[in-house]
Specification:
- It contains twelve helices and nine strands.
- The protein is α+β, with helices and mostly antiparallel strands.
- It folds into two domains: 106 residues, Phosphorylase Kinase, domain 1 (2-Layer Sandwich), CATH 3.30.200; 247 residues, Aminoglycoside phosphotransferase (APH), C-terminal lobe (Aminoglycoside 3'-phosphotransferase, Chain: A, domain 2), CATH 3.90.1200.
- The strands form three sheets. The chain has a five-stranded antiparallel sheet, with helices on one face.
- The structure holds 2-acetamido-2-deoxy-1-O-phosphono-alpha-D-glucopyranose and magnesium ion (MG).
- The site of magnesium ion has 6 residues, from loops.
């Protein structure tokens, strides 16, 4: 095990000796390792990226507030059995600063468990809906005003468009040229994507505690494929249902990869969508509040558009935010996500029907049950 990691691990309040560290590489922002120890208990050691998270103390405070609340609320439902927690440092507190601006925290590894990059079947899509629904229902009574907005305007499309416009104006001409057709796609779609942000600002869609990074790899399942819990709580903040719903569907219901270079692979899995909404709403796991179903069927397109826009902006800014695997990776990602946004817009009507029928079956179950 790398001496640097061993030294950092030793500062946390764990008595067992570490035996190995394995990099967990599915995230695009932070560095994460699984640490195995002699006792058999494993841990997840994470270094928060200082560029993405300029105020790690506020991030940690949000994560602690949400996990403490989840711990109080967990149990009694026969589902949602696990809650991610944090280990304190020997000297107190939960965050260890290094001299490069990184901030480290340690969590117990929840196991046995697994996660997926791609959903293998409708069963997992349903469990994913239930896992997110449970997280949102268990945080429904946590006042969002108690959390800081650690990444201001994170899913605010007006803000993301302003950042994109500024990046375009100052980008190097070569990158602008490579990105020209993708920039045209943004120009074509941008107005049509602003509805949810306007409804939020008008107060039609109410604020709640949201996870804000609900892609499938951030959901944990048992080895048999039962949903366990949401992980990667770095972005828990005040938000709206549309962010978490749309972002989860973005990854789960795409038959291609997030960075698929082949546009023919990018199609909407309506069967997965139906299963997802049944899992989330069908049995009353999450009961939406007034205003929360308004424009909900638009949210997958909008969230794919926002992520694609952020990736394109990052390409124009020479890839300083998202980790890339090859030159041009952010542009490939952006193309795929913008193509996906179009596909979701085309599937709006059947998605709206699926949401409606899941809500109806919940209402029926409520009447008869
Ligand atoms: C980033 O770090 P990771 O992979 O969980 C990003 C999300 C994007 C996602 C795209 C803090 O998430 O907003 O949706 O990549 N996280 C941050 O895969 O910017
Ligand atoms: Mg994340």
């Amino acid at each position: 095990m790398e001496p640097r990691l061993a030294a950092i691990f030793s500062q946390f309040s764990v008595s067992a000796m570490p035996t190995s560290a394995t990099g967990l590489t599915s995230g695009h922002i932070n560095d994460t390792w699984r640490i195995d120890t002699e006792s058999g208990q494993s841990y997840v050691l994470q270094r928060l990226n200082p560029i993405a998270f300029p105020d790690p103390d506020a991030v940690m405070a949000n994560k602690l507030a949400v996990t403490e609340h989840l711990l109080k609320r967990a149990g009694g439902r026969g589902f949602g059995k696990a809650v991610p927690g944090f280990l304190p440092l020997r000297r107190g507190g939960f965050l260890l600063r290094d001299n490069q601006g990184g901030a480290w925290n340690l969590m117990p590894f929840i196991g046995p468990s697994r996660s997926y990059l791609v959903a293998p079947d409708v069963h997992i899509a349903r469990e994913a809906g239930q896992t997110l629904g449970l997280f949102l229902s268990q945080t429904s009574d946590l006042d969002p005003a108690l959390l800081s907005e650690t990444l201001p305007g994170f899913h605010n499309l007006e803000r993301r468009l302003a950042e994109f416009d500024a990046a375009k104006d100052s980008a190097d001409p070569r990158r602008c040229e490579d990105a020209a057709p993708t920039i045209d796609t943004v120009t074509e779609l941008r107005e049509s994507m602003l509805g949810i942000e306007q409804l939020r600002q008008a107060g039609v869609i109410p604020e709640r505690v949201t996870h804000n990074d609900t892609k499938l790899p951030n959901m944990l399942f048992t080895p048999q494929g039962k949903g366990l819990c949401m992980i990667d709580l770095d972005t828990v903040m005040p938000g709206i249902l549309h962010y978490d719903f749309g972002d989860a569907v973005r990854m789960l219901c795409n038959s291609g990869a997030e960075d698929d270079p082949n546009p023919d692979h990018i199609k909407v899995r309506l069967d997965y969508f139906e299963a997802f909404v049944e899992g989330m709403f069908g049995e009353g796991t999450l009961v939406p509040r007034t205003g929360e179903t308004t424009a909900l069927a638009d949210s997958p397109a909008v969230m794919a558009f926002i992520v694609g826009l952020r990736m394109l902006t990052d390409f124009l800014q020479r890839d300083r935010y998202f980790a890339i695997a090859y030159p041009g990776h952010n542009l490939v990602r952006a193309r795929a996500q913008l193509a996906l946004a179009r596909r979701f817009s085309d599937s709006r009507a059947p998605m709206e029907d699926a949401i409606e029928s899941a809500l109806q079956s919940a209402a029926q179950a409520g009447r008869t049950g």
